[in-house]
Write a structure and sequence with these properties.
single chain, 104 residues, alpha+beta, Double Stranded RNA Binding Domain, four-stranded mixed beta sheet, 2 helices, 4 strands
Length: 104
């Protein structure tokens, strides 16, 4: 899986980039077919914004976005939303495979 962490308009400590990359790796637990993932960290005045984009193949792109006053809260919320999206996508994919007519 390719992963990218982009930080805009603010300098976060290096440990933040490492934590985000580790969390991106953990997303594979919820859907193992992630092709690439990208995290965008941004700060406007007192508000922190975290956006996570996952390309899960076959043209499907999942996006989770969170804005909070505290960076850790925005990070947690964005990853929680992405977790939900990946689980929902996996279940949808499994359900479609179960309903597919069998050749014959």
């Amino acid at each position: 899986m390719q992963k990218q962490v982009s930080i805009l308009h603010h300098d976060y400590p290096g440990r933040v980039r490492d934590e985000v990359e580790e969390r991106l790796d953990r997303l594979l637990k919820y859907y193992e077919r992630i092709v690439s993932s990208r995290a965008l960290l941004e700060r406007h005045n007192a508000e922190h914004r975290v956006e996570i984009v996952c390309n899960v193949g076959h043209g499907a792109v999942l996006v989770a976005d969170a804005r909070k006053d505290a960076f850790s809260a925005a990070l947690d919320e964005a990853f929680d939303r992405m977790h939900s999206l990946l689980v929902r996508h996996r279940e949808k994919h499994i359900d479609q495979r179960r309903r597919a007519p069998r050749g014959g």
